[in-house]
Amino acid sequence: MPDYWLTVGAVAVIAALTSAIVTVWGVSRPIKHKAVIEERQNWRQAIRELIPKFVNEEDEAARNEIRNAIVLRLNPYKDQSALDLLGEYATTPSAELAGPLVAHFQAMLKLEWQRAKREAGLFPWGAGWRAALSVRWQKWRSAKRDARATVAP
User: In this structure, are residues 48 and 109 in contact, taking their beta carbons and an 8 Å threshold?
Assistant: First the structure.
């Protein structure tokens, strides 16, 4: 009989600890996610506003100032190609360089939006790779649809 009560007590303690952990996680997760999601929204909005200003700016000093504002919002370890495109366009602005620059940031914003949607969902784990997979899938579907449109009579 003492084994029975020991088992019941152990199960009760484990249930209480599990309940406490789930409760703390459930309460703290929305607060953290709300702050992160709002910051990311502000980041995306700033990039959306700065890139057109950068591309359309005629004055070199103002263009460099906008470039610096964009660079400060990027991760120097992950966004090296974006930094290279910005530097190249800042030194020699042209329509040929503007297209790839805008396309790169458009893809970056799309990936970030997909990541934010995944992280805000019920299962935030692996949001980065799931977002990248989603973007690749959308590109593939779009290319397939475009191929069908060009073949259709």
Answer: yes
Kindly tell me the burial class for residue 123, based on how many C-beta atoms sit within 10 Å of its own C-beta (0-12, 13-18, 19 or more).
exposed
For the chain, what are the domain ranges? 2-151
Reading the block at residue 58, the tokens are 């005629």
Q: Which amino acid is at 45?
A: Q
pLDDT at 129: 74
Q: How many angstroms from the chain centroid is the CA of residue 84?
A: 20
Per-residue pLDDT band for 1 (boundaries 50, 70, 90) equals low
d(CA 104, CA 93): 16
DSSP 3-state percent helix, strand, coil across the chain (nearest 5): 85, 0, 15
Task: Please provide the distance, in angstroms rounded to a whole number, between the alpha carbons at the two ends of the chain.
Answer: 82
